[in-house]
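Our consortium's second objective concerns turning raw sequence data into structural hypotheses that experimental partners can test. To show how far this objective has progressed, the report includes one record in full. It was chosen at random from the queue rather than selected for favorable results. The single chain below, 167 residues long, was entered without modification.
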Amino acid sequence: MNSMSKGHYQDEKKGCCKKFKETEVLLKCGNSIPAVVGPTTPTGTSFTVSSFTVSTDKLSNPCIKFEFASNIVATAATVTLNFQIFKLSKYQTTPIAIGPVWTFSRAVATSADTFTFIVCDCDFCLDDCTTYSVVATTVGATLGTVAINNPILSALVVENENKPHCC
């Protein structure tokens, strides 16, 4: 009996046609907001380099994987910058930090580097819209000029079926 015979074919057909719940997946990419840091920029100056708003109202227990990437060009510069992702939900007044602080530091005259990091956020209740932003902050005095080019925050949002609903 071959695989196309009636008996065997019917068994395969029954097995492959089971209905599974489809998992919702969203892909978001942020706006790029290039920045230039110069020697007159005060220590502790913060600026948003990428952001987007995402609606998770159709997802059950969402989990988000963020990826940030940028090109950092230092010209005759010594620089240290801290980067962190923040979220601001519809009913919040103060953004909440997501994940650790990521530090970019160069003590050379001229360099061009790619800077990237990944952060996950699975700790929130459902909200209609949440804005996520990457904020860069100067640490110490900046000598020379530093350009943060093509900064982009992207996110892959999926349903987290292993976590019970938090609300």
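The partners drew two points from this record. Residues 4 and 10 are 9 Å apart (CA to CA). The first strand starts at residue 25 and ends at 29. Both points have been shared with the crystallography group to help prioritize constructs.
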